[in-house]
Amino acid sequence: MSTVTEEAAVQLRVVQMEGLAVLKIIKHCEEFAPALVTGQLLGLDVGSVLEVTNCFPFPIREDDEEADADGANYQLEMMRCLREVNVDNNTVGWYQSCLLGSFQTVELIETFMNYQENIRRCVCIVYDPSRSSQGVLALKALKLTDSFMDLYRNNGLTGEKLREKKLSWVDIFEEIPIKVSNSALVSAFMKELEAESPVSQCDFDRLKLSTAPFMERNLEFMIGCMDGLSSEQNKFQYYYRNLGRQQSQQQAWLQKRRQENMSRKAAGEEPLPEEDPSNPIFKPLPEPSRLEGYLVTNQISSYCNHINGVAGQSFNRLYLMKALQED
Amino acid sequence: MAAPETSTCGAGPALLFPSSSSSSSSARVEAVVVFTICDSFVRRPDQAERVIGTLLGSVLPDGTVHVRNAYVVPHSESADQVALDIEYHHNMYASHQKVNPKEVLVGWFSTGFGVSGGSTLIHEFYSREVQSPIHLTVDTGFTMGEASIKAYVSSNLSLGDRHLAAQFQEIPLDLKMLDAEKVGFEMLKSTMVEKLPNDLEGMESSMQNLYALIDEIYKYVDDVVEARVAPDNKIGRFIADTVSSMPKLSPASFDRLFNDKIQVTTCSCADKWLSWFLPRLTIGHISLLLQDNLALVYLSSITRTQIAVAEKLNTAAQVL
């Protein structure tokens, strides 16, 4: 159908969420914090906007055999029930909570690939409950970039191919801006019910001077990630060293063979072949995947961003305090 | 609660006593519930005038019912009978229980103003499932010209053994929001928000709020001094208390404080919510002062540079 191909070409520009979906996600993640929870997003895919109109949470699964079938049953049951009450039961992605921004894991990528097989366009909404104490609504919509997905499918995460496509760690995830919309009815209700007050709890949170626990945890995680990064780099160094060693071995073997051949020629015998695939030193070494390294790098950069943001806020507060003291 | 008394005869004035029941004293509703109800009302099938559904939540030890979640149940209503899809209700309940076993059935809701005749039957059905359910009405039609959400408990009026009617008594209702939701509250009030505010924008808006508050207080004090407004002693004392709660430090020692690492108690802004702020904020500490912050920003910038360099090295390494 021509309409299908047209839609496929339109880029996803913005994710439009209903206030209801936002509230439900926040409620579910906050209730179970610090455990990590997930849920399904339902909505519509319209042109360049992905609308999320509702969502439902997944139960926390223990890892056993029956859980998989149970989970699928639960999902079907919920979708069927929601269909009866006219909720869009079109899956457009899933949401998950994360701890202090550390959501870039291999599982996330795998889940994305799974979803991508069935749904053309899906997003993952990540909510960070620990940042709400800083007065920030940490809701992010993520998508894997197309180029990265192609590479991942073809198992091409080696240095050569990445350089070819000019893909670096920034290009794995793509963040999409979120818009929040509400029906007129519900916004009328909210306006009436909650009195307009000049300040709110969240202003209070933002103006609080002590940010130490948050910063400390951020730094801790970042240090952990640095360890991860350095171990990845060590892996690569090891690989290159082995490769170099193998190559020198190959050269040496080749030299010997050539000499042998020359002596054989002198003696009038058949020259031996210059290659010997059965020799173990000719076995090509597998290059380790760069995926982990890239993910760790992503995490570190998000921690850095958090720290910068919070430090910026602290500067504001400190100067405010200074001004108060001056008179 | 008065014990039920039976009156012996049918003739003459009858005495009606409500039968004793452990009814809840008040209810608390979370914002999510209101959103769910409004959303399901908007999506209702064309021929239905109102929507009905189940409320889930928990009962606190002091008798307050905390309503945390809700889902709509298909029903059909005509002039004299009401039919509720009971199986659907049980299925959804089971599914919700899988996610959150602590949320139990606490009552039911309906849109529309006031309690109608059909509601009694539905209420009876829910009373069979849970003891003394709460009935929530959400007036989506704005019949009184304002948004009204009311909660009722019912008590049975009986004459002897004969059940006469159910009396719905209104109980006080409180709308509650999680702290995290309050962060995004501005977003929830309007019909469309273009983008979510990030940290610095939020900071800016908080500062502006603070500024507006201080302006208001300033204006009030000015007005009182110029005798434009009658002075209120309570407010005056409040303001005096707040301003004096700011620790007075000499400029030299404050500079040292600002630049070194000492812990100090500090103060907050002045406004009419101060009584709530004050006990909490005056015990704040400046734990991360200027230099620490600068050090952190420096560290994070270095880390970022390091990552960029490392990545270049990794991918640029050629195998010869």
UniProtKB/TrEMBL annotation, chain A:
Biased amino acid composition, Basic and acidic residues: 257-268
Cellular component per GO, a single term: eukaryotic translation initiation factor 3 complex
Compartments reported by the entry: Cytoplasm
One protein family per Pfam: JAB
PROSITE patterns, per the entry: MPN
Family statement drawn from the similarity comment of this UniProt entry: Belongs to the eIF-3 subunit H family.
Protein name: Eukaryotic translation initiation factor 3 subunit H
Organism of provenance: Aegilops tauschii subsp. strangulata
Lineage: Eukaryota, Viridiplantae, Streptophyta, Embryophyta, Tracheophyta
Automatic annotation (TrEMBL), chain B:
Primary site of residence: cytoplasm
Record carries keyword Hydrolase: no
Top-level taxon in the UniProt lineage: Eukaryota
The keyword Membrane appears for this protein: no
GO molecular function annotation: metallopeptidase activity; translation initiation factor activity; translation initiation factor binding
Gene Ontology annotations for the cellular component aspect, listed alphabetically: eukaryotic 43S preinitiation complex; eukaryotic 48S preinitiation complex; eukaryotic translation initiation factor 3 complex, eIF3m
Residue ranges of every copy of the MPN domain listed in the record: 27-158
Key words of the record: Cytoplasm, Initiation factor, Protein biosynthesis
UniProt cross-references to Gene3D superfamilies, sorted A to Z: Cytidine Deaminase, domain 2
PROSITE patterns (UniProt xref): MPN
Locations listed in the record: Cytoplasm
Alphabetical GO biological process terms: embryo development ending in seed dormancy; formation of cytoplasmic translation initiation complex; pollen germination; response to sucrose
Function recorded in the entry: Component of the eukaryotic translation initiation factor 3 (eIF-3) complex, which is involved in protein synthesis of a specialized repertoire of mRNAs and, together with other initiation factors, stimulates binding of mRNA and methionyl-tRNAi to the 40S ribosome. The eIF-3 complex specifically targets and initiates translation of a subset of mRNAs involved in cell proliferation.
Family: Belongs to the eIF-3 subunit F family.
HAMAP family for the chain: eIF3f
Subunit structure: Component of the eukaryotic translation initiation factor 3 (eIF-3) complex.
Descriptive protein name: Eukaryotic translation initiation factor 3 subunit F
Organism whose genome encodes this protein: Aegilops tauschii subsp. strangulata (Goatgrass)
Record lineage: Eukaryota, Viridiplantae, Streptophyta, Embryophyta, Tracheophyta
